[in-house]
Amino acid sequence: MKVALITGITGQDGSYLAELLLSKGYTVHGIIRRSSVFNTNRIDHVYKDPNAVNGEAQLFLHYGDLSDPGLLTELIYNIRPDEVYHLGAQSHVRVSFDMPEYTGNITAMGTTRLLEAIRRSGIRPRFYQASSSEMFGAAPPPQNEQTPFAPQSPYAVAKLYAYWMACNYRDAYGLFACNGILFNHESPRRGETFLTRKVTRALAFMLSGKQKTVYLGNLDAYRDWGYAPEYVQMMWLMLQQDQPDDYVVGTGEMHSVRQFVEDAFAYVGIELEWRGQRQHEQGVVRSVDTRWNHVVRSGDVVVQVLPKYFRPTEVDALRADITKARQKLGWEPQVTYRDLVRIMVDYDLLFEGLHPPGEGIECEQRLGYGWIQQPPYNVTGGLDSYQRLPVKAERQLVRTIVELLAEAEGKW
Ligand code: NAP
Ligand code: GDD
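Predict the joint structure of the above. Result:
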């Protein structure tokens, strides 16, 4: 049975990857940071206490930090992984302008520390580096493995350094190291300050009467948004090939931030129009489905652009050329941008205790990601309060919604 080590296991991708590997029979080890509050929400539903369950635990968590080289060496040496998935990072682009040195320390140097821990341990696991389409920066779309890098943020510069370190350990020491150059990928587990989740979560709060306006930055950037669970499958696949290589993974489609906002609102029956100039623009409700007019009305300002959310240097447009991954890995994204918007809105409504339109949940069920458990947390009771439901209750909740929807459509 294979053993995998995941850095960043508590993040969006780490949680899906842990579930995928567990479903394949791996023993999974993950590094978590010490925090004054619980930070394992995304993986609690797959964790079994090794002290309590005889022989059943396949997921083991270890305290550690990418700033601590000694500990990384000890973990590699003791765990002796067959595969290392390096996902841990300060991953927020806007924040990297506020914390450039910290971002370099964790996102760039953290990778070197991990690679050195591997080299010094004498163990030779296969290594996945979570590289990013942000490295392409100012290079015009579509971007592929041959596109020259032109990073536009401290985050992108740090990721580029880490990318080259992975290449260097492959060339210098024969390490089986792969860079997955992944374009933006989202899900109901996406961090709440990334654009897509910020919008879908705010929309759900608005529909439950808890929020009036969402404050955003640049509406005119374009991104290639895909569905995170599909992307972690590609991480695994890269490490199963005969030769290590680097791959671009995306959908090949791009949409603007403005369009994402319009489409999320339109899905629940709210039409927007835009007023004002770039840095002070507003999204105003033109019309609203009668279902919501007790909380949202025509003329309401539901989006307000604020200069503080703009980045000192922006990446204007990212769109993946996925020819190589398609040819060599058989990559064909299943979840379209349209589905993604629906999945994210559906789940955020569900987390708010609202009845979602359901097309997104239905799409997810149709595609049959049997290894995904339903999102392990619910957001209820206000902007800052997280109240978790037992996993069984959540699954029941999702099933009930799906059944109700199917019934309504006469399919049951
Ligand atoms: P995420 O949700 O922000 O997760 C980041 C993970 O890194 C979390 O588990 C975090 O721990 C951990 N981490 C942060 N600082 C750390 C430190 N000092 N020591 C150890 N762990 C630390 O990111 P994601 O969206 O899952 O992305 C996974 C990786 O792919 C990241 O490296 C990201 O840069 C890269 N990537 C993401 C995308 C995307 O669109 N999602 C695209 C391309 C590349 P806490 O939970 O304790 O904060
Ligand atoms: N986060 C955020 N918040 N972004 C906003 C906002 C806002 O209020 N308003 C507009 N945007 C714009 C950003 O300027 C950017 O052009 C776009 O929305 C997407 O921003 P994010 O969702 O923060 O993602 P990102 O593209 O900067 O970075 C993500 O994708 C990278 C891959 O390309 C992160 O996941 C990175 O870790 C990842 O490497």
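The pocket of guanosine-5'-diphosphate-alpha-D-mannose (ligand 2) is lined by residues 91, 93-94, 132-134, 183-184, 193-195, 198, 216-218, 221, 223, 257, 309, 311, 314, 318 (CB under 6 Å).
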